[in-house]
Structure to design on (182 residues):
């Protein structure tokens, strides 16, 4: 058969939104949860803080790598890690409030259980860095290695939340970049 003989009049229809979800998988939000998510100002707070945290992360990563590669810029790298950690704490607190408003619990709502669990590792590593810094434990290089481990965990966790955002969009009715509470 030649390519010219292919029937180009085939029509396609978009599958219903629910079809984007694998069979047997519960939707990310119930109708009530989706309505609460769309009404709460904490959704907007999360939508602002998540990209801000990512921007601070990128700047800090550059400063930390510069220090580790050249030995220069320890102070800016340290300040950037502290700033990233403080923003992480802020987004965790506001994310917990968001989760309480939407799901009725501060953490570990079934829809975000694994993201919240991995967020605890991110928090632990960032907090370990602060403890090392404030207690003078380890060299600057060792402290920043812990920060980099926290950053690696953060990248994985951010990926988890981006996948949730995609899932919410496929299910329909996303009110913006709101599935990024941590």
């Amino acid at each position: 058969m030649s390519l010219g003989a292919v029937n180009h009049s085939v029509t396609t229809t978009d599958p219903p939104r629910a079809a984007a979800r694998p069979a047997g998988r519960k939707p990310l939000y119930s109708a009530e949860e989706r309505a609460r998510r769309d009404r709460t100002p904490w959704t907007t707070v999360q939508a602002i803080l998540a990209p801000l945290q990512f921007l601070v992360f990128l700047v800090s990563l550059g400063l930390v790598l510069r220090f580790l590669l050249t030995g220069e810029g320890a102070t800016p790298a340290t300040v950037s890690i502290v700033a990233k950690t403080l923003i992480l704490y802020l987004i965790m607190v506001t994310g917990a409030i968001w989760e309480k408003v939407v799901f009725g619990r501060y953490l570990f709502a079934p829809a975000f259980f694994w993201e919240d669990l991995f967020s605890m590792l991110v928090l632990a590593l960032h907090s370990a860095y602060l403890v090392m810094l404030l207690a003078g434990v380890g060299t600057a290089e060792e402290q920043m290695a812990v920060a980099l481990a926290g950053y690696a965990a953060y990248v994985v966790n951010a990926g988890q939340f981006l996948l949730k955002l995609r899932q919410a969009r496929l299910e329909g009715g996303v009110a913006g970049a709101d599935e990024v509470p941590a």
